[in-house]
Amino acid sequence: MGVFYHPDDTGRSQPNLIMLDAYKEKLEFPDLKRAAYDKYMEYEPDQMIVEKKASGAPLIFELRAMGIPVTEFTPSRGQDKIARANAVTDLFASGSIWHHPPSGHTKLSRSALHSRQESMMTSLTPHLRHY
């Protein structure tokens, strides 16, 4: 996730959020660690947010040991992906959430929750709670 400024309908510059990349693949731990490190080096973010489940816990430990700033995320009990998405739906309604696919910047909307972008949205919604 990154923050950038974009003019609103009145021309005033407003903060917007952009997801720079999404990565979904089943990897063995050494490959997962290498992929996370490579993404960190590619984008040089201020922090990485990693879900603290399964391989996430040791990944957080390893990345921190390498000096990479990591924030751990643990989903709330009793909240499924729809409940987590509903918690940040106003951000999508405002039009201030963007995705940077290889073809260029694209605004994400609430309708993406029910489209082919659903898995990306599932990954994105926990991170939005940090903003």
Q: How would you describe this structure to a colleague?
A:
The structure is a single chain. By secondary structure, this protein is of the alpha/beta class. Helices cover 37% and strands 20% of the residues. The strands form two sheets. A four-stranded mixed beta sheet has the order 1-2-5-6, with no helix packed on it. The chain has a two-stranded parallel ribbon with strand order 3-4. The longest helix is centred in the first third of the chain and has 15 residues, at 29-43. The mean pLDDT is 78.
Shape: globular
Strand order of the largest sheet: 1-2-5-6
Any idea how many domains?
Answer: 1
Helical fraction equals 25-40%
What's the total count of β strands? 6
Structural class: alpha/beta
Q: What is the number of helical segments per DSSP (H or I, 4+ residues)?
A: 5
Stretches where pLDDT falls below 50 for ≥5 residues? none
Main sheet summary: 4 strands, mixed
Distance between the termini: 10 Å
Average predicted confidence as pLDDT:
78
